[in-house]
Automatic annotation (TrEMBL):
<protein>
    <submittedName>
        <fullName>Uncharacterized protein</fullName>
    </submittedName>
</protein>
<keyword id="KW-0677">Repeat</keyword>
<dbReference type="InterPro" id="IPR015915">
    <property type="entry name" value="Kelch-typ_b-propeller"/>
</dbReference>
<dbReference type="Pfam" id="PF01344">
    <property type="entry name" value="Kelch_1"/>
</dbReference>
<dbReference type="InterPro" id="IPR006652">
    <property type="entry name" value="Kelch_1"/>
</dbReference>
<keyword id="KW-0880">Kelch repeat</keyword>
């Protein structure tokens, strides 16, 4: 195994989310010199192609794949203000849906799928926080998890 360089993305960006779905690399959102992006691209047959845009521009947006759908959690808008929505993208239909909002508004946090729940860890609002929260897709409810030993962002 070795690293292989792929062609450049169609839109230069940083702070984006990337996932592998059905052997395709999909890149969503991010920021460039013009601001936050709504662009979605996938790598297929050796080239990048554009897909339908996200409903809004979103950079610094962590996410997870759950039940073959991408869930983006929070992020930043074009003015660097935190976004609070958890949005779901169904690559089979190309449709987006807003699932819920983060209970504690913050940015620069970690996200993982743990025990079937979206787990949001740390981050900052005015200062770094130690909060851990989990969202259960079956109930639609957020619950507090054990706090981190110290604030992290």
């Amino acid at each position: 195994d070795c690293w292989v360089q792929l062609p450049p993305l169609l839109f230069e960006r940083q702070g984006c989310s990337a996932f592998v779905l059905e052997d395709k690399i999909v890149v969503l959102g991010g920021r460039n010199e013009t601001g936050a992006l709504s662009a979605v691209e996938q790598f297929v047959d050796g080239a990048w192609e554009s897909l339908a845009d996200m409903p809004s521009e979103r950079g610094m947006c962590p996410g997870v794949v759950m039940h073959d759908k991408v869930l983006l959690v929070g992020g930043q808008d074009d003015a660097h203000d935190p976004l609070h929505e958890v949005e779901e993208w169904d690559p089979a239909t190309g449709l987006w849906a807003t699932l819920c909002e983060l209970p504690f508004h913050r940015q620069c946090f970690g996200v993982a799928l743990w025990n079937g729940k979206i787990t949001v860890v740390g981050g900052f609002e005015d200062d770094s926080v130690e909060f851990v929260e989990q969202w259960d897709a079956d109930t639609g409810l957020w619950t507090a998890g054990p706090a981190l030993p110290m604030p992290r962002a």
